[in-house]
Design a protein that fits this description.
By secondary structure, the protein is of the alpha+beta class. The chain is 30% helix and 21% strand. The chain has ten helices and 17 strands. The longest helix is centred in the C-terminal third of the chain and has 22 residues, at 285-306.
Length: 408
């Protein structure tokens, strides 16, 4: 049997960064290559019904070894890594028996507990870190490694009762589009868990509600020496749009817990055309709707001032708070809590200030809370992953499979 760490180190060396939002799924060829590699591994350890579909979803089955009427549960993790930081040429190393001091990643940057207080929780443990040039890829290759290690353990220990387990490794989670192509009915699970984020012991049942707001601005480009009364500088209109949004409040850097925000994600432009993009987030659906209306009004105000058609406004819903579905499915949450506590861990429950595939799946008919994979500082070179947290995640997954062997 491979260790969960061996799996993880092998996986992160495969470049699976997702690309820009695209009609093509997966958005990058490395994800499909990874799916095929995972399919071979699933077959090698003894999973059945292993498939990779045209969208790059890899699915497989661990058959039930208990014949009573028990629910079919799903376990999911995503194959892509974030495009927010370099993800090619990942060269991880393991810091054994962490002493609580600074960890030098390369000549330029270090991982310091003075900046990342979470490090203090892991003194004496083994930490997987980056070389400072790329992200680590624990989000979510740690989840994949943990699921497969748990499946291999259950296959090696048939005395542990479990029902039918379906697993899925999904593409393009980081750009929010992959799960659009997931066949929930064909997957055939009664409910599921994503293993995608959070420190050891964490169980997520609440996410943001999320939308994107895009302002496409059309100006009038005229020679600047002879443009009085005729030029409309699209970039200046873009600046005016940004000035209408909060700068010192209601931003990611000024909010926490249940507080929502407006987040400027992109600005580009010249005289003739420009674009401004925001993501809008709030745990409360009514509050998000107000944010959406505010953004829409900003566009309307610009069109009244500069002429209809100056600003083309587009609003796109991304995901909704999974709590709206899971609040009526408490048995799914309770069994995850039992599994975490049985592993000897402290249960951590808090709203995630983001979203997961589980949020989308919950509204697609597959209730799906999120389990921890154990990592910290995702999407950048300061990402790290305690080995002991990975091992704990494997145990929690095994416990969940065991707990769900009880009849409906």
């Amino acid at each position: 049997m491979k260790s969960v760490v061996e799996r993880f180190i092998e996986y992160v060396k495969i470049d699976t960064q997702s690309g820009d939002i695209s009609e093509v799924c997966p958005s990058t060829p490395g994800q499909l290559e990874f799916a095929k590699l995972l399919a071979k591994e699933c077959q090698a350890i003894g999973l059945e019904d292993v498939k990779v579909d045209k969208f790059g979803f890899m699915t497989a089955t661990l058959p039930a070894n208990k014949q009573e009427n028990v629910p079919v549960i799903g376990l999911l993790a995503h194959m892509d890594t974030s495009p927010d930081a370099p993800g090619k040429g990942i060269d991880p190393r393991i810091v054994k028996n962490y002493d609580g001091g600074d960890i030098k990643l390369n000549e330029k940057i270090s991982l310091r507990p003075s900046e990342f207080a979470s490090l203090k929780k892991y003194i004496g443990q083994d930490l997987i870190v980056t070389d400072g040039n790329t992200l680590l890829g624990a989000d979510d290759k740690a989840g994949i490694a943990e699921i497969l290690s748990a499946m291999e353990y259950l296959l090696a220990h048939p005395e542990i009762p479990h029902g039918k387990i379906r697993i899925a490794f999904t593409p393009d989670e980081e750009i929010g589009s992959g799960i659009n192509n997931f066949d929930v009915k064909g997957f055939g699970a009664d409910y599921a868990y994503t293993v995608d984020g959070g420190e050891v012991g964490e169980l997520v049942t609440e996410t943001f509600n999320a939308s994107t707001a895009t302002f496409n601005i059309t100006g009038k480009s005229v020679h600047p020496g002879y443009s009085k009364g005729t030029m409309l500088n699209a970039s200046l209109v873009a600046a005016e749009i940004m000035a209408a949004f909060p700068v010192n409040s209601e931003t990611p850097a000024t909010t926490e817990a249940y507080e929502g925000f407006y987040h400027l994600t992109n600005i580009s432009g010249e005289v003739g055309e420009a674009q401004v993009s925001y993501i809008l987030r709030d745990h409360d659906a009514a509050k998000l709707a107000k944010r959406e209306e505010f953004a829409k009004k900003v566009a309307e105000d610009m069109n009244r001032k500069y002429g209809e058609g100056t600003v083309e406004f587009a609003l796109r819903q991304q995901y909704r708070n999974m709590h709206e579905v899971l609040k009526d499915q408490l048995h799914i949450i309770d069994r995850a809590k039992e599994a975490i506590k049985e592993a000897g861990l402290t249960l951590v429950t808090q709203p995630i200030r983001g979203g997961t595939d589980g949020a989308r799946l919950s509204f697609m008919g597959l209730p799906c809370p999120n389990l921890f994979y154990g990592g910290h500082n995702a999407h950048g070179p300061y990402e790290y992953l305690p080995v002991q947290s990975m091992e704990a995640a494997v145990q929690v997954i095994v416990n969940i499979c065991k707990h769900h062997s009880n009849p409906r």
